[in-house]
């Protein structure tokens, strides 16, 4: 975690270089297995491109939709955007884009200008075993530290440190009591996939390949040894898709052992095996010169008092000022305002 005056290319370059050093991914050969999901902050995209050339860079689909909605409104356009983005096969993506082109050609051209590897699942890399297209972690983290952010910098950082210290040990203790082989949320996803194999009938070639046939005549190709399916869901996420589940059930295999090791209980426990050490009171710290605030550059315009809302957020109807109802008296021409006190001057 770092505190900077502004989000610029220089500050992001400095921060990402520290992350790469801590994670040991300064070597391009190691960074190619990593995926960075960002919201296109100022300087962040260019800093990632320069420091992590081999890593995968994705844009948050929710932030992409916010820019999309500014000039391309409509429920139908929104559905087609998400349909195209979530398609894991190139052929399915092309079909969604053709539907979009038939409705609005300008919208089709706007989306076609965006790099495909950064927002389309059909172009995602398969090395990181991550199919995420939405980045809600930043918003969740900012919400969790909202009380600490109003405090002086040392007090703020200490509050965040204690919060992270408690969270890490609670996550580890909670998983230690769990009896499953894979993480609980991943188990729920796998259980959901078990509901669909009944509609897919697998045909086995006698070795590692299966050809599941669907109810509408469509087919997929599953390779058990490579842990791959032609729908690419298993390849991208590391969790067997419904086609792979049908093949594994046919082989009477235990489904949990075919989930990628990144989602196992053992890996989770290793991730949270490290602790944040406690720190004594500030009066025991070595004496230093008083910490002065940074020179914050003055922003143009009036200072904002409220957070800028996204295009998806709506105003609270209860906060809108209600208009007084003007009622005409029966049989008369005078108007009066109900429930309104009128004071007469002298």
UniProtKB/TrEMBL annotation:
It holds the Pfam family SWIM. Residues 298-323 are annotated as: Disordered. Signal peptide: none annotated. It comes from the Eukaryota. Residues 220-252 form the SWIM-type domain. Keywords: Metal-binding, Zinc, Zinc-finger. One of its GO terms (molecular function) is zinc ion binding. PANTHER family: MUTATOR TRANSPOSASE MUDRA PROTEIN (PTHR31973:SF187), POLYPROTEIN, PUTATIVE-RELATED (PTHR31973). This is SWIM-type domain-containing protein. It comes from Eucalyptus grandis. The lineage of its organism: Eukaryota, Viridiplantae, Streptophyta, Embryophyta, Tracheophyta.
């Amino acid at each position: 975690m770092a505190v900077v005056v502004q989000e610029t290319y220089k500050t992001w370059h400095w921060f990402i270089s520290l992350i790469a050093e801590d994670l040991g991914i300064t070597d391009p050969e190691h960074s190619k297995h990593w995926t960075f999901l960002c919201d296109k902050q100022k300087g962040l995209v260019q800093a990632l491109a320069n420091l992590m050339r081999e890593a995968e860079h994705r844009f948050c689909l929710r932030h992409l939709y916010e820019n999309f909605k500014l000039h391309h409104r409509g429920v139908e356009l929104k559905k087609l955007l998400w349909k195209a983005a979530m398609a894991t096969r190139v052929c399915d993506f092309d079909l969604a884009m053709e539907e979009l082109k038939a409705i609005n050609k300008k919208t089709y051209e706007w989306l076609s200008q965006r790099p495909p590897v950064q927002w389309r699942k059909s172009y995602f890399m398969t090395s990181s075993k991550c199919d995420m297209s939405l980045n809600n972690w930043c918003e969740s983290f900012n919400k969790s530290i909202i009380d600490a952010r109003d405090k002086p910098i040392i007090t703020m950082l200490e509050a965040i440190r204690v919060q992270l210290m408690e969270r890490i040990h609670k996550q580890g203790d909670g998983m230690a009591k769990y009896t499953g082989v894979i993480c609980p949320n991943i188990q729920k996803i796998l259980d959901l996939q078990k509901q669909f194999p009944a509609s897919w009938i697998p045909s086995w070639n006698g070795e590692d390949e299966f050809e599941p046939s669907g109810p509408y005549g469509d087919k997929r190709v599953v390779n058990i040894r490579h842990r791959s399916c032609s729908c690419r869901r298993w390849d991208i996420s590391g969790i067997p898709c419904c086609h792979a589940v049908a093949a594994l059930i046919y082989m009477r295999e235990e489904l949990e052992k075919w989930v990628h090791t990144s989602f196992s209980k053992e890996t989770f426990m290793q991730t949270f095996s490290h602790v944040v050490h406690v720190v004594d009171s500030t009066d025991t710290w070595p004496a230093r010169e008083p910490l002065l605030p940074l020179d914050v550059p003055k922003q143009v315009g009036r200072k904002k008092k409220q957070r800028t809302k996204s295009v998806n957020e709506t105003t609270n109807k209860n906060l809108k000022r209600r208009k007084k109802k003007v009622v005409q008296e029966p049989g008369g021409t005078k108007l009066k305002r109900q429930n309104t006190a009128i004071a007469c001057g002298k």
